[in-house]
Amino acid sequence: MAHPSLLLQFRLLQAPAAQCGPPTPAASLGHKFKSSHNKSEHEAKRLKQYAIDVCKTHGLPDNALDEFLNLKSIKEIQEFIASDDFKSIMKDRLHACLLSLNLTGYVLDLADNVIAYTKKHPTTFKIPDGTFQDPEMSDMVTTFIKENLTAQWGNIKQKISHSVKSKTNISVLTKSLATTGHEVTVAHWAHFAFLRSSLVSFQAVVEQCKVTLAAQKGGASVAVERRDEDNDSLEAPGPDPAMGESDEPGDVEGANTTEKMWIWVSTEFWEFVDLLLHDVRQEACTAGKTPSAREKLVEM
After folding, report:
1. What are the angstrom distances between the C-alpha of 62 and each of 20, 67, 70, 72, 295?
2. Can you tell me the distance from the alpha carbon of 10 to that of 186, in angstroms, rounded to the nearest whole number?
3. Burial (Cβ within 10 Å: 0-12, 13-18, ≥19) of residue 140
4. C-alpha to C-alpha distance for 240 and 254, rounded to whole angstroms
5. By the 8 A CB rule, do 171 and 192 touch?
6. Which of 241-245, 261-265, 280-284 has the weakest average pLDDT?
């Protein structure tokens, strides 16, 4: 018997059940993927058993319809992970990740670490089984995670910035950052206070960098004008006695030039926070004699 005829018979066997009342999970292959993962998994098992019964009725191997069932399952999963329900669930879970007290950084390797965690605990994020085994679906989920983390960084920074400008109590900021149903502890309050204090420091650093950069540009402009005046006043300019043989005339930096400072810009707040967290851990490693002592210092 040809494979298409078998699929046709399999569909026809569902027709009586569909006419007798509401469609059951076994009789409705085209049913959309349920938002509840447990209900969907139960439906898949019943559908699988129904397919086995059909194969036995026609004297076929139990797995004769596996390929057909898998194709339907993949399509349903694709529809689910593209749905607004799934995106809403993921946004909530990712926001909880960003509020975690165990983060060692907000930029460096964060997306990769979150993706690795979702692959290890897919049920926590309501990700259907088999999603990461399919390259296309895996790419859909990982791309969404990266893009949403970036969006949530901006949203959190905006809320902290508003808290700084309005000079509201830390409890107001905590309420705006914490998700519904998320347990907020004293440690979370301290963490949010740290982020707000970091933003205040960061804004001051950015302003200072602007002043320094403007001064450097102004100094370079004055130096160029003076060199032009000196060149105009000399008939045959020779090498500057202060220069070594390997120095070039266009080099405006002297031998005592100090190391250039990093110029921070307003879009690098989370990189600034990562640097502060790194410094905190370094200080804890130096001051703490035991791992538990270091952990307490970091929490402080």
Report:
1. 27, 12, 14, 18, 56
2. 59
3. middle
4. 12
5. no
6. 241-245
> What is the C-alpha to C-alpha distance for residues 52 and 113, in angstroms, rounded to an integer?
40
Give the number of other CB atoms < 10 A from CB of residue 223: 12
Do residues 272 and 105 make contact, with C-beta atoms less than 8 angstroms apart? Answer: no
Amino acid at position 210, single letter: K
Q: Are 163 and 173 in contact (CB under 8 A)?
A: yes
DSSP state of 238: -
Helix, strand, coil distribution of the chain in percent, nearest 5: 70, 0, 30
pLDDT of residue 209: 93
CA–CA separation, 210 vs 146, rounded Å? 31
Mind listing the pLDDT tens digit for each residue in 148-188?
999 999 999 999 999 999 999 998 999 899 876 778 888 89
Distance CA 83, CA 150 (A): 20
For residue 25, the 8-state DSSP code is G
Distances (CA, A) of 54 to 46, 47, 163, 251: 13, 11, 63, 84
Q: How far apart are CA 41 and CA 25, in angstroms?
A: 11
Closest to 26 (Cα-Cα) out of 55, 46, 5 = 46
Lowest mean per-residue pLDDT among 7-21, 188-202, 215-229: 7-21
The C-alpha angle with vertex 102 and arms to 99 and 103, in degrees rounded to 5, equals 70
What is the amino acid identity at position 180? Answer: T
Amino acid at 107: V
